[in-house]
Automatic annotation (TrEMBL):
Superkingdom of origin organism: Eukaryota
Full protein name: Uncharacterized protein
Organism per entry: Diversispora epigaea
């Protein structure tokens, strides 16, 4: 893939298409395009297009960032930096053949007129694979942002994957974009989001003090408090209940807990 520099900003390349480039023309009506149509239109663009800068930044760029934000310079493989690691211990990776991405798309942010100009550069060659293949390799900013928002809530990866597929299809008209979204991708993004969020809890004296004060308060209010730990699941916590509740549990064998899953812990 290659990129072209603009007088205003760096120009970024695209990655695939099936439409033959034609003589550039100016498109004037794009307001009725749905998100999936916008992605396909820019991916296969064969004309000159001007979009208001604010509209492009908010409603276009997040949809196409995965294939328009890759510059055309050579990037070293991460495996090449591990000179002392034997080949049999290296992760097996797929390497794309060189000279595959010949299509060039020029994107210019024109500050003076507050527009973004998008066009096929110098009638460059067509793309060699589809937009679906691009989505498989990397998700757009819109999809990644949705995953990050749900990851903050600490839902399970399967639940996040199902929710995003439904929401993106029904509400955002991005069914094609999320059709191949995998649970493993969501898991990786969630780890990146939740990891930094929970680092501050390790050795946090304020957290330990808050827990100690909470336990003392509950015991003063007549609660029976017990610690529990499940080693095989790396789970631990605190259980508290009124003695009267425990008597009901002994008598009936079950308790009705209303809103027992509601999270009120500010550290969660």
């Amino acid at each position: 893939m290659s990129a072209v520099s603009s007088a205003i900003t760096p120009v970024v390349p695209s990655v695939s298409s099936v439409v033959t480039a034609s003589v550039p023309s100016v498109v004037t009506s794009i307001s009725n395009l749905k998100p999936d149509e916008k992605r396909s239109f820019l991916f296969d663009i064969n004309c000159s297009l001007e979009i208001p800068m604010e509209d492009f930044d908010n409603n276009w760029w997040p949809l196409v960032s995965e294939y328009l934000d890759t510059m055309g310079f050579h990037r070293e493989s991460s495996t090449r930096q591990k000179e002392n690691v034997p080949n049999e211990k290296r992760r097996i990776t797929k390497i794309r053949p060189s000279g595959l991405y010949l299509a060039k798309i020029k994107v210019s942010w024109i500050v003076s007129s507050k527009v973004v100009q998008v066009e096929r550069y110098n009638n460059s060659s067509n793309h060699t694979h589809s937009l679906i293949e691009v989505d498989r390799i990397k998700r757009s900013k819109t999809v990644r942002s949705l995953v990050e928002k749900e990851a903050v809530k600490n839902y399970s990866p399967p639940a996040i994957t199902a929710a995003i597929k439904e929401y993106a299809t029904v509400k955002l008209d991005l069914g094609k974009c999320v059709r191949k979204l995998k649970c493993k991708e969501v898991t990786n993004i969630k780890y990146k989001v939740r990891g930094p969020m929970e680092v501050h809890l390790i050795g946090n004296s304020n957290l330990k003090l808050d827990i100690s004060e909470s336990v003392s308060y509950l015991m003063e209010q007549g609660y029976q408090v017990e610690n529990y730990r499940v080693p095989q699941r790396s789970t631990k916590g605190i259980v508290f209940a009124y003695p009267e509740q425990l008597k009901k549990l002994e008598r009936h064998g079950w308790l009705t807990l209303i809103d027992s899953t509601h999270k009120t812990n500010r550290y969660d």
